Amino acid sequence: MWEIFLLLAVLQCGLLIWLGQVGERLAREEKAAIFGLAHEDDWPSAALIIPAAGEDPRMEEALETLLEQDYPRLLPVVVTASETDPAVRLIKSLQARYPALRHVVAGEARGCGQKNHNSLAGVAAVGTAAEVYVFCDSTHAAGPDFVRRLVAPVARGEAEFSTGYHQVLPRDNRPVTMAYALCVQLMRYLQGLGRQFTQPWGGAMCISRQAFERHQVREIWAGNVVDDCSLAGVLSARGVAVKLCPGALLRTEAAAHRLDVWRAWMDRQVLFLKFCVPAQWRLLGVLCAVMALPPLMAVLSLLGGLTGLASTGCVAVAFLYLIGLAAAMGHWRGLAGSTQPLWRWLLSFALSAGMFAWVYARTLRAQGILWHGIWYEVGEGGRVRAMRR
Length: 389
Hints:
Layout (H helix, E strand, L loop, with lengths): L1 H30 L14 E6 L7 H9 L6 E7 L6 H11 L4 E4 L8 H13 L5 E5 L9 H10 L5 E10 L4 H17 L12 E5 H6 L2 H6 L5 H11 L3 E13 L4 H18 L1 H30 L4 H25 L5 H22 L4 E4 L2 E5 L5 E5 L1
Parallel strand pairs: 1-2, 1-4, 2-3, 5-7
Antiparallel strand pairs: 4-6, 5-6, 8-9, 9-10
């Protein structure tokens, strides 16, 4: 038994250390601001399309940061499903301060995710007035050069699709808040492993208009439950690379994060892959085992050592594993700029691993996704079979 434990412990700690090195590289690249475009006229006209819904307290600040971008010829469009959506009042208030802001009402989605429907309505409203489309979530704060960083690879002709990501800044030391931030940190580092692991993230994504048409993104989204993972599956099959822009990093503050909200978010992340990119979902199952089994085996080994039921080898591996995990999490804590005690990071990791295993197990037999009050019955490739509000 201790040999299996040792193998899994080495795999996990090695992976965490490797991802920490990826995080260091992303941090260096994030600070770089070399765009390679000397004149303002070199930048393509861009539409900033932002689907919005509800009354998230972070939305006003996030939208303001997106509307104050240092980018020439930027066409900002915020899209809601209806004229009565709670977000509309905020949008109208912002239009008084940002006259360039356009509000589009998409109507209720039929046969696809509401976010997809909203994004497509934004594209239709912009038409050919923009050479690139930038899609962003409405609740993440952006730096003033965020759009430039995201558009630059497309403008330089390096890629047809580029993506950023986000970072969660925990504003308290509650286990769920910190575990949520750690999960997002892990997903960001996985994006940076290499081009085969980089896929578009719908919260910060840029597509040239030509690529949008050539790859039939409109047709893909019009029948799919989600925007980014549906593209990931298609682009991967076609051998189309997505350029990761480490500097196009949005930030989200989290405090008193609720367990049910975190679990529902993790459900969607895993289910989107299951339906849209099943090969990655199966690989995610391997990652789940590597992350969840060593902490469980360590606890059982230490308890067994106290009761005389575990071998000396298992107890020794448990202590060595905890030392390795503490070293890896200490590195991650430094990369996140956190001042929380190391034991809180270890607790957050254990909680994340347990939630990961629980959520993945729930997805094994899942046939649909609940998202923003809409139940989507989903088939192969993420195509929507039925919807229920």
